[in-house]
């Protein structure tokens, strides 16, 4: 009797392998009637595929995630018909040769442990590469590749919805969080993930559009119809797809989840592209006991997810999975049907440290602390800062110059900045002050105990010479600037910052925007940011040393 597969209709006739239509495969391979013979016992060889639902009568519509259904050409249909005729005539087929212990063991492994989430038998990536897989596929697979060109990968787009009419926190999408506009955190993660063909921001506000482009995203100007307080995310996504039909998969990323990391997006993209899921959404595990709400006519509350008499300890309870609103991925056909969580749907569990959601004002300071410690700061490896160069006018001071009657300059500075400089020096970070003016006497009078360079005509060259003299790389240098003359330095160093009242060019070039104005604690604030980054560098080094 021939060894065959109930779905694909493979049968061994003599030496070559050919396809024999079966009741399951007739719709896929041929319109010819199946041979009226008793079905042989099912045998799965290494490398064979059983489509989802085949054993339950899935039929021609059953398919395997991650693989394209191939429509047979007329030539293949005729070949399949010929095979069926020959099988009716001969009714005798030479038995399959022994495949050896290694192949039998692999076959048993496929039968016992290769079942996917829907009962399908799948092949491992390694089995596709070895000879066992190729001996089963046969020449028909080669003909398929020759007859049909390879389809391009589906276009996956990241889409951040950021309208300008936020009621809870006005213009919260571009409000600085830990020195970076809120929407910038997720845009940085999406772009660095490298799994999207395009990254978009859908907005109706000019300032949001400007910030989005600064972070490298494309902008879709949403219409007023989907920019109302009552408008839903699904309506805005549908409008985006109407204007961008080339997009096949949408990754809707929430701007209010600033602790998102690229690795999470990479994992989800794999679940969509390779594992065959239609939609994926993010969740976080919570350990919260829930009780029913007291409403009219109800005087007592009841437990919803616990037995108060056997109240479990946290470590003895797995908790519950709750949506954290970080992202929702879905294929186009689901979205057009009005569904972001449908089809073959699965969740993606994020770690609690990265699950941050900002909705109201009270969430902001908590989110800022979390993002400073657990946020994603870029794909460049962190380096310990060893040098801080700070502009004097507008950073150390507020930029005001007062003249006495005898024409002497009088400037002011904040004692908090002096403390910040002292703390940096205690952490072995050298501090240099720089200015285009000759203000050495004024700065010396401050008694800050740090070096300075004055009368500088080219700040970039001055910092370059200073860096070389100390034997540092650019990643080990931080710079605080506030004017256009500081822009090139801000772009070059490993950590760049600007006071909140700095000029627009300086803020655009800086990776960190201080909350404080120049001369009002900006240096102290930057010092805290440097210390936090140094902690991350140290913790990363310890993890590397602990690895075997």
Protein described:
The protein has helices at 26-29, 74-90, 100-113, 125-129, 131-147, 182-193, 206-214, 233-243, 262-273, 332-336, 363-374, 392-396, 415-426, 440-444, 459-470, 487-492, 504-509, 522-546; strands spanning 10-12, 17-19, 156-161, 176-177, 180-181, 198-203, 218-221, 249-253, 279-286, 320-331, 345-349, 387-391, 402-403, 409-410, 430-434, 451-453, 477-480, 495-498, 512-513. Residues 1-73, 80-150 and 542-548 have low confidence and may be disordered. The chain is an alpha/beta fold and 548 residues long. The chain is 34% helix and 15% strand. A seven-stranded mixed β-sheet has the order 7-6-3-8-10-9-11, sandwiched between helices. The chain has a six-stranded parallel β-sheet with strand order 16-15-12-17-18-19, sandwiched between helices.
For the termini, the CA-CA separation is 54 Å
CATH topology of the largest domain: Spore Coat Polysaccharide Biosynthesis Protein SpsA, Chain A
Structural class: alpha/beta
Q: Major sheet: size, sense and barrel closure?
A: 7 strands, mixed
Bin the strand percentage: 15-25%
Helix content range: 25-40%
Spatial order of the strands in the main sheet? Answer: 7-6-3-8-10-9-11
Query: How many helical stretches?
Result: 18
CATH superfamily of the largest domain: Spore Coat Polysaccharide Biosynthesis Protein SpsA, Chain A
Radius of gyration: 32 Å
- Provide the low-confidence segments as ranges: 1-73, 80-150, 542-548
Average pLDDT level: 77
């Amino acid at each position: 009797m021939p060894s065959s597969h109930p779905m694909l209709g493979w049968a061994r006739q003599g030496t070559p392998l050919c396809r024999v239509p079966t009741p399951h495969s007739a719709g896929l391979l041929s319109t010819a009637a199946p041979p009226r013979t008793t079905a042989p016992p099912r045998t799965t060889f290494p490398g064979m595929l059983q489509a989802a639902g085949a054993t339950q009568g899935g039929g021609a519509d059953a398919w395997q995630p991650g693989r394209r259904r191939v429509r047979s050409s007329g030539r293949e249909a005729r070949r399949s018909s010929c095979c069926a005729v020959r099988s009716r005539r001969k009714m005798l087929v030479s038995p399959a040769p022994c495949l050896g212990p290694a192949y039998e063991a692999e076959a048993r492994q496929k039968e016992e442990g290769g079942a996917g989430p829907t009962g399908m038998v799948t092949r491992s990536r390694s089995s596709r590469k070895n000879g066992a897989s190729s001996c089963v596929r046969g020449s028909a697979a080669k003909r398929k590749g020759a007859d049909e060109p390879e389809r391009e990968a589906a276009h996956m787009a990241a889409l951040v919805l950021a309208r300008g009419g936020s009621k809870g926190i006005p213009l919260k999408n571009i409000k600085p969080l830990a020195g970076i506009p809120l929407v910038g955190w997720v845009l940085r993660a999406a772009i660095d993930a490298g799994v999207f063909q395009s990254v978009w921001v859908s907005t109706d506000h000019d300032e949001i559009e400007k910030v989005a482009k600064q972070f490298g995203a494309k902008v879709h100007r949403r219409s007023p119809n989907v920019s109302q307080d009552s408008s839903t995310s699904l309506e805005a996504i549908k409008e985006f797809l109407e204007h961008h039909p080339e997009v096949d998969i949408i990754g809707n990323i929430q701007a209010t989840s600033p602790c998102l990391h690229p690795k999470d997006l990479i994992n989800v993209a794999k679940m969509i592209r390779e594992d065959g899921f239609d939609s994926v959404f993010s969740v976080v595990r919570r350990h919260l006991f829930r009780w029913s709400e007291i409403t009219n006519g109800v005087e007592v509350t009841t437990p919803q997810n616990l037995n108060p008499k056997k109240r479990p300890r946290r470590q003895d309870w797995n908790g519950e999975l709750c949506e954290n609103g970080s992202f929702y991925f879905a294929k186009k056909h689901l979205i057009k049907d009005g569904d972001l969580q449908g089809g073959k749907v699965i969740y993606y569990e994020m770690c609690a440290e990265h699950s941050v959601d900002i909705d109201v004002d009270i969430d902001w300071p908590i989110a800022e602390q979390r993002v400073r410690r657990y946020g994603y700061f870029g794909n460049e490896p962190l380096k310990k800062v060893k040098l801080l160069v700070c502009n004097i006018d507008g950073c150390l001071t507020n930029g005001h110059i007062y003249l006495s009657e005898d024409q002497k300059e009088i400037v002011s500075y904040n004692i908090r900045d002096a403390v910040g400089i002292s703390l940096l020096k205690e952490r072995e970070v050298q501090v240099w002050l720089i200015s285009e003016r000759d203000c050495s006497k004024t700065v010396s009078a401050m008694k800050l105990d740090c070096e300075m360079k004055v009368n500088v005509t080219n700040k970039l060259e001055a910092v370059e010479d200073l860096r070389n003299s100390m034997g540092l790389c650019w990643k080990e240098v931080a710079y605080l600037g506030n004017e256009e003359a500081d822009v090139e330095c801000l772009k070059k160093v490993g950590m760049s910052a600007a006071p909140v009242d700095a000029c627009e060019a300086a803020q655009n070039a800086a990776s960190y925007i201080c909350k404080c104005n120049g001369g009002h604690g900006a240096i102290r604030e930057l010092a805290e940011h440097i210390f936090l980054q140094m902690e991350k560098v140290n913790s990363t080094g310890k993890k590397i040393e602990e690895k075997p």
